[in-house]
From TrEMBL:
The chain crosses the membrane at residues 12-30, 132-152, 164-185. It comes from Profundibacter amoris. It comes from the Bacteria. One of its GO terms (cellular component) is plasma membrane. PANTHER family: ALKALINE PHOSPHATASE LIKE PROTEIN, INNER MEMBRANE PROTEIN YOHD. It holds the Pfam family VTT_dom. Residues 31-152 form the VTT domain. This is DedA family protein. Keywords: Membrane, Transmembrane, Transmembrane helix.
Amino acid sequence: MSDLLLSLVADYGAIMLFATTFLSCLAIPMPSSLMMLAGGGFVASGDLGLTTAVSSAYLGAVAGDQTGFQIGRKAGTWLARAPKRKALLSKANSLTTRYGGPGVFLSRWLFSPLGPYVNFGGGATGYNWAGFTLWGALGEAVWVILYVSLGYLFADRITEVADILGNASGFLAALVVTIGLGIGLRHAMKQPRKS
């Protein structure tokens, strides 16, 4: 599938970059990082303009974030009506408010596999839309500029760079989830047992 998408970047550069970053922000499996690296490679070869590559990938990512946030907002309204979920949603809302901005920012580029779920979760918990948009837009700028630049600099080694970045990003995301689960278990074990 990646080979097909890469060939489509050569033919439909801006549209493909927009579409893959948009869909990846909605948790639809897309090799968006690889596509941005390829976009940078096409910029290096002169087949795609730098402004076109960066702006189309960036706009797709921001639009995907906003769509995911709104989907989460609709789901959060529905969840808030369920009595058993209300307390859980309230707790998630307080955590999102406390750590939201930096969490949104880092999930755009450093822990990018978590990004779509932060989009949905931010909307579902009622996180401030303006704050989400600001932090998300800043994080997406880092993500897009980083990957397109690396594609430009290492145009002849795109697959190797994609493998390294994918493994590092996946490891970091797994580490964050593991730490979160550990903290949750520790907290649960400290709670008094009900008889």
